[in-house]
Amino acid sequence: MRVLIADDDRVSRRLLNVILEKNHYEVVEAEDGSEAWAALQQPDSPRLAILDWMMPKMDGIQICQELRKSASELYVYVLLLTTKNLKADVVSGLEAGADDYLTKPFHAQELLARLRIGKRIIDLQGKLIAAREALRDAATHDSLTGLWNRTVVVDLLKGELNRTQRQYGFLSIIMLDVDHFKAINDTYGHQVGDTVLCEVAKRLTSVVRPYDAAGRYGGEEFLIVLPRCDEHDSVDIAERIRACIDDYPVDTYAGRVSVTASLGVSITGGDNSVEFESFLRCADDALYRAKKSGRNRVEVTDLTSMPGVFTSVNESSPVGERA
Questions:
Q1: Fewer Cβ in 10 A, N or C end of the chain?
Q2: Do 54 and 159 fall into the same domain?
Q3: Rounded-to-integer distance, Cα 106 and Cα 124, Å
């Protein structure tokens, strides 16, 4: 673990450096308080700091106060070195934000023991942050595919729809359904079915733009939100997703499985205003038409010119049913 040593006394810094490096700490040195504060502002700043109480420019107390006022989530454990040993001085140092203190001259083993306490606290915070992020990820992402879950992708769609209608822009959505997915589960088992869903998610995310949102809507259905995307662009993306899924079989432990998908596209924008439920239903209706027309195809509901106008695309695309 990296440790910041801040002391204006060169001999004291050297002594600390020798002790810490001998015990496998990586040392960052600062000659005064201003240099120490600058080191603590770096993205990869040390999480342990040994600060001399009395230093030019900024003393240890001032650095503690600034640290505790900052909004950084990563905690810095501060050990104050001081010649002061009055209880009032110790209390003022701790109240300023120091975590511990050590009076000069100090014993090397006591210093190392106090640093180990700081390291345990820093490690514990790291575990808590990791656990929180894992919970946050579980609450927002589909556990199987890693895409946004239904709640999040629907919320993202609602936000984009509101923004689009305020700015008179364009918004498209794609509802994707894996063809004959029940037959895949029945034939090869649910483990293979899970592998297919993960691969479909991987392939569709390889096609969409970085600012598009893709989520698992339920079962073998996926919802893709395409901001600022008109009919031409959305159909192009949908067709590339369809082709990417159809291009080559999915490798599974049971062998290679041919997979296709049907896609329904819905577009709104300009002066057109559509309710969220209607917008989503139009994509679902287009998906139903794609299924009914033979699967492995894209169908479009274009709401930008006239509500209820249905446009079919890739009439010449392969529509043969596959296992």
A1: C
A2: no
A3: 27
Do 66 and 164 lie in a common domain?
Answer: no
Instruction: Please indicate, yes or no, whether residues 184 and 128 belong to a single structural domain of this protein.
Output: no
Q: Cα separation of 297 and 312, whole Å?
A: 9
Q: Where are the alpha helices (H) located in 23-149, listed in sequence order?
A: 33-40, 60-69, 87-95, 108-140
Residue 209, domain extent:
150-312
CA triplet 144, 145, 149: central angle to 5 degrees?
Answer: 90
**Structure tokens given for 27:** 């040392």
- Supply 173's token pair: 């959505």
Distance CA 233, CA 247 (A): 21
Q: Which CATH number goes with the domain that contains 52?
A: 3.40.50.2300
Catalytic residue among 220, 231, 239, 299: 220
The model's pTM is 0.67
Catalytic (active site) residue 73? no
Residue 260 in domain:
yes
Q: What is the CATH number of the domain that holds 301?
A: 3.30.70.270
Q: Find out whether 149 and 242 touch, Cβ atoms under 8 Å.
A: no
Render each residue's pLDDT in the chain as its tens digit; 323 residues: 899 999 888 888 899 999 999 999 999 999 988 999 999 988 888 999 999 888 888 888 899 988 888 877 788 999 988 887 767 777 888 888 889 888 888 889 999 999 999 999 999 998 998 898 888 888 999 999 999 999 999 999 999 999 988 888 899 999 999 999 999 999 999 999 999 999 999 999 999 999 999 999 999 999 999 999 988 999 999 999 999 999 999 999 999 999 999 999 999 987 677 889 999 999 999 999 999 999 999 999 887 755 444 444 443 344 333 33
Residue 54 within a domain: yes
**Residue 223 · residue 157 · CB < 8 Å:** yes
Q: Which residues contact 261 (CB under 8 A, 6 or more apart)?
A: 176, 177, 178, 179, 200, 241, 242, 245, 246, 296
Identify whether residues 282 and 159 lie together within a single domain: yes
**Domain boundary residue among 77, 108, 140?**
140
Q: Of the candidates 85, 105, 140, which is a domain's last residue?
A: 140
